[in-house]
Structure formats: C-alpha cells, structure tokens
C-alpha cells in the first residue's frame, strides 16, 4: 500500500475541486423533483460540472456511461441514469459525483428523499450521514485508518442496519481511486497511520436490511439482495495537523 501525501500546491487544487463539487451537489439537490427521469438528473449534473470548467470524473471511467451515478431506493451505488427511470414520491435518490479540476479530483455523494419522506426512510438517510461525521472524528494525524472504520461501524450498530462490505472508500488525488481502501466496518487491525496531507474519500453505504449486495445485468448497478432501501453519503477529506478538513462540503450543509 502506497498512500500519496499531497503537498501544499496539490492541496490547494483539491480544495478548489472540492468547493466546486460541493456547489454542484447543492445546486443539483435543489432541482430534484418527483416526475423527473434519472437521465435528466445526469444531464443537469454534467452541465453544472462543465459550467465551472471541470471534467466529470465518472464519464467514461472504466466504461461508465454517465457523469452522475443516480441510485434509487434498493440501488446502493453506480446506478446508470435512464430516461425510463422516473423518480417517484418518497424515493431515496443517491447522487454520487466527481469532478476533475486542473488534474485533481474530488468525489462526494448525497442521499435525498424526494417528495414525502417516511420516518423509516428519513432515519436511514440521517443515520448514514451522521455515521460519516462519527467517522471523521477519528480522521486525525496520529490515529490509524481503521479507527475511522470502527467509528462508522459503532455508530451504525445500534440501528441494526447492514453496512456494505463489498465496497469501500478510497484515497483520492490525481486519480479517483488511490490507496488506501477505507472500509466502513470494523477490522481486526488498526491499519496505516494517518498523516497530514493524506486525502481520503470516506463514504458510508448503509442498507436498511442485509449488508449483502448484488450487481444488475448492466454490470454497474449495485443493489441490496433483499430489495430494501439503501443510502450513501461521501466527502473528500484532508488529514491535517489538527481537525480534518472536509473539502467537498458547503457551510450550509453541516
């Protein structure tokens, strides 16, 4: 495992990329509505990304055909936008997006309940987001990587939700996926030491039922095996000499 430490110039560019992506998510979230297709969501998202002079990270990545991963209800991640998939009242819609700005990447995801939210669904979405913030309390130099994983797991455990094990967070920088992999569940070891200059995409993926997932015939869309709903929350995070810095978050989102 080789974790890349970013220098001040690289951090500045990643901070700019993160600010742009935070704005993209904020604007895209405002436009979600019942009756729109997931393809429409993707088109709006790509326009927002390109309007800031960025390249969509996901478009063409390992063959992925869109700019925004739009995953609905039992779709955990990597949902492919479609003109035929229409957002219904009460759907959980997870949007995963990435931008490339001057050669550096930022990656973030948000889950929204469109229209009327049931208490059960709202609890899942809120707990998923809160587990991220529980995790980054441990994202400090001198701690170890899997301290983050343990904190996410500890937060989710009382809810009896399923934590996806087949997918993890990751390092990020010039490449979307760098070392290390960042599990959202407990590990037997503590993992590598966290150091200032590390940039991590931390992303709990939490299911209302089982942790087990499968892949649809499109070879991209990950779904829960029991067809129960899922939520996803992610940000790009910088390890510093003090508190972690969330690069892809607006002040209004905290």
What does this structure look like?
It is a single chain. By secondary structure, the protein is α+β, with helices and mostly antiparallel strands. The protein has one domain: Creatinase/methionine aminopeptidase superfamily (Creatine Amidinohydrolase). The strands form four sheets. It has a five-stranded antiparallel beta sheet with strand order 8-7-9-14-15. Strands 1, 2, 4 and 5 form a four-stranded antiparallel beta sheet that branches. The two termini are 32 Å apart. A hairpin with a 6-residue loop joins strand 11 and strand 12 (222-224). It has helices spanning 8-31, 38-51, 119-136, 145-156, and strands spanning 55-56, 68-72, 75-77, 92-101, 104-113, 162-163, 169-171, 178-182, 199-202, 205-207, 213-215, 222-224, 230-232, 235-238, 245-246. Helix 1 (8-31) runs antiparallel to helix 2 and helix 3 (119-136) packs antiparallel against helix 4 (145-156). The radius of gyration is 17 Å and the shape is globular. Helices cover 27% and strands 24% of the residues. The protein has four helices and 15 strands. The mean pLDDT is 97.
The strands making up the biggest β-sheet line up spatially as 8-7-9-14-15
**Kindly, what is the distance between the CA atoms of the first and last residues, rounded to a whole number of angstroms?**
32 Å
What count of helical segments does DSSP give? 4
* Number of structurally distinct domains: 1
Count of individual beta strands: 15
Shape-level CATH architecture: Alpha-Beta Complex
Helical coverage, percent range: 25-40%
**Stretches with pLDDT under 50, minimum 5 residues:** none
Over the alpha carbons, how many angstroms does the gyration radius reach?
A: 17 Å
Structural class: alpha+beta
Order of helices and strands: HHEEEEEHHEEEEEEEEEE
* Most strands sheet: 5 strands, antiparallel
CATH H-level superfamily title: Creatinase/methionine aminopeptidase superfamily
CATH domain class name = Alpha Beta
Mean pLDDT: 97
The CATH topology name reads Creatine Amidinohydrolase
> What amount of the residues lies in strands?
15-25%
Taken from the alpha-carbon principal axes, the silhouette is globular
